[in-house]
């Protein structure tokens, strides 16, 4: 059949028509437990009542002003988000990639104007296996062939070092380095958790060399790891933290750079912007998201149920049903033994049994259930996974 849709995705063969909490329904009326939750964009599940109510109320009032005019929710959203994460300033954008681009600009501006790096020479150190979005600058420093190949020429000024190796990272820093940009846990790479001493050593190397630590918490942040931010797992604070995905409550794209006002204040009028960034609808939903997170129960649920998830996955590893599993909180990368087929095939078998998950890099299944998932639902899904794997 001819499609009018560009083929830049290969979704599982399911067409969804409705969603509620942890569940979605397809056009035939079949129900599925959603174990992907929009790659963490749906941390509060589908159509969380508080978020829908906030959006609905705002739709009746004011939806867009552009930043040419102020609106009554912009400063409150900035204040509440900063207070939630302990930052002194924020800059609102829409998508995750825009938050990454914003941080790159802010770090370079800081490098030239504060650190004194000669103009045009700033470098940023990034990690192998990174995923920070899809703009040409960002894919330029991706080492994923599909993401990168055929889209150059790319922006210079990035150095790629192995993820998890703090010595290699420190060695890549020199007087031109303005920032280190990392995911504290690499989501797209397959939920790769670095060694315990990695992020503290990275933080120390950045501080020693007067380099900004920028943590991309677009997927790992806002409760996913059983902490508000993944950096907390190792007691590490970034100079700039990137938020996105769940910040929009699964309703609208909302992203932000939060952090040190000594960096973000350099983005003065005319230097950066976005027509939709910080719009009233986004701020209304974002405020409601902050309100949910402040209760702490989502983060706690992710921590407690996450521990249960990983103990059950470890059991599958020891029974030889999966090769390896990684993760923390309600977030896991599960490596399927090639003898059991590809991760895609396992995801299709799960789908046929009412569980939606997503494959990545051939053999890895990624799960990131909504933080509202109940223990019995998660257990049912893990039973289904066990059945699917033991019958292959
Ligand atoms: C999803 C993601 C992005 C990009 O976000 P978009 O909203 O798709 O642009 C950036 N960084 C990380 C870690 C992500 O998971």
What does this structure look like?
By secondary structure, the chain is of the alpha/beta class. The protein is 36% helix and 16% strand. It contains 13 helices and 15 strands. Strands 4-10-9-8-7-5-6 form a seven-stranded mixed sheet, sandwiched between helices. The radius of gyration is 21 Å and the shape is globular. The chain starts with 15 loop residues before the first strand and ends with a helix. The model has no long low-confidence stretch (mean pLDDT 97). It binds pyridoxal-5'-phosphate. Pyridoxal-5'-phosphate is lined by residues 39, 95-97, 100, 131-133, 183, 187-188, 216, 218-219, 244-245.
Q: What's the layout of helices and strands?
A:
Elements: E1 16-20, E2 23-26, E3 31-34, H1 37-40, H2 49-59, H3 74-85, E4 89-93, H4 96-115, E5 123-127, H5 136-140, H6 145-148, E6 158-161, H7 166-172, E7 177-182, H8 198-208, E8 212-216, E9 240-243, E10 255-259, H9 261-264, H10 280-294, H11 297-318, E11 324-327, E12 332-335, H12 343-352, E13 355-356, E14 358-360, E15 364-367, H13 375-390
Parallel strand pairs: 3-13, 5-6, 5-7, 7-8, 8-9
Antiparallel strand pairs: 1-2, 2-3, 4-10, 9-10, 11-12, 12-15, 14-15
Bound molecules: pyridoxal-5'-phosphate.
């Amino acid at each position: 059949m001819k499609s009018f849709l560009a083929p830049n995705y290969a979704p599982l063969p399911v067409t969804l028509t409705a969603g509620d909490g942890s569940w979605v329904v397809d056009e035939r009326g079949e129900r599925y437990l959603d174990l992907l939750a929009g790659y963490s964009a749906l941390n509060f599940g589908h159509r969380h009542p508080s978020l829908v109510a906030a959006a609905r109320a705002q739709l009746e009032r004011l939806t867009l002003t552009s930043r040419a005019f102020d609106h009554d929710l912009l400063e409150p959203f900035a204040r509440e988000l900063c207070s939630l994460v302990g930052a002194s300033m924020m800059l609102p954008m829409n998508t995750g990639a825009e938050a990454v681009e914003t941080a790159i600009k802010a770090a370079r501006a800081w490098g030239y104007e504060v650190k004194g790096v000669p103009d045009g020479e700033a470098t940023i150190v990034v990690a192998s296996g990174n995923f920070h979005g899809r703009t040409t600058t960002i894919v330029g420093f991706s080492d994923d062939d599909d993401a990168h190949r055929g889209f150059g020429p790319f922006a210079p000024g990035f150095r790629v070092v192995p993820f998890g190796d703090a010595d290699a990272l420190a060695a890549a820093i020199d007087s031109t380095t303005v920032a280190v940009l990392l995911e504290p846990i690499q989501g797209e790479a397959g939920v790769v958790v670095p060694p315990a001493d990695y992020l503290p050593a990275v933080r120390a190397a950045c501080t020693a060399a007067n380099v900004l630590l920028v943590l991309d918490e677009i997927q790992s942040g806002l409760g996913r790891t059983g902490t508000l931010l993944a950096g907390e797992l190792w007691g590490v604070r970034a100079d700039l933290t990137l938020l996105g995905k769940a910040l929009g409550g699964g309703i609208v794209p909302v992203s932000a750079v939060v952090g040190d006002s000594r960096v973000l204040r350099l983005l003065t009028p005319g230097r950066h912007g976005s027509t939709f960034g910080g719009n009233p609808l986004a701020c209304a939903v974002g405020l409601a998201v902050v309100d949910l997170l402040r209760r702490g129960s989502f983060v706690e649920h992710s921590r407690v149920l996450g521990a249960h998830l990983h103990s059950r996955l470890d059991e599958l590893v020891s029974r030889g049903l999966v090769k390896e599993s990684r993760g923390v909180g309600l977030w896991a990368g599960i490596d399927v033994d090639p003898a059991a087929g590809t991760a895609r095939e396992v995801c299709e078998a799960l789908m046929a049994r009412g569980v939606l998950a997503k494959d990545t890099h051939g053999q890895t299944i990624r799960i990131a259930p909504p933080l509202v998932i109940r223990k019995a639902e998660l257990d049912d899904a893990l039973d289904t996974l066990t059945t699917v794997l033991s019958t292959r």
